[in-house]
Structure prediction request, 74 residues.
Amino acid sequence: MLKFTLAVLLVTSALGAMPAFASSNGGGGGTIGRGCTLDPFNHTMRCIDFDHCTKNKNGQTVCPVVVTTTRIAG
Prediction:
């Protein structure tokens, strides 16, 4: 019974992770990139550019943020 329970948990966790694996290939046009969040209410995407971070005078890391709209004009 314990082996069956472990097998069910393993299959369930593998199936739960499949969408993450499917979207990580970068081939789809509707994927959200690294460091980006999408607000579904106002259709804006905020992306933090981790490759161009700097340090301010207080020693804190500051990264540029790009805000773009994802709403289709029409």
Observations:
- The beta strands are 36-39, 44-48, 54-55, 61-62, 65-69.
- The first strand starts at residue 36 and ends at 39.
- The two ends are 58 Å apart (CA to CA).
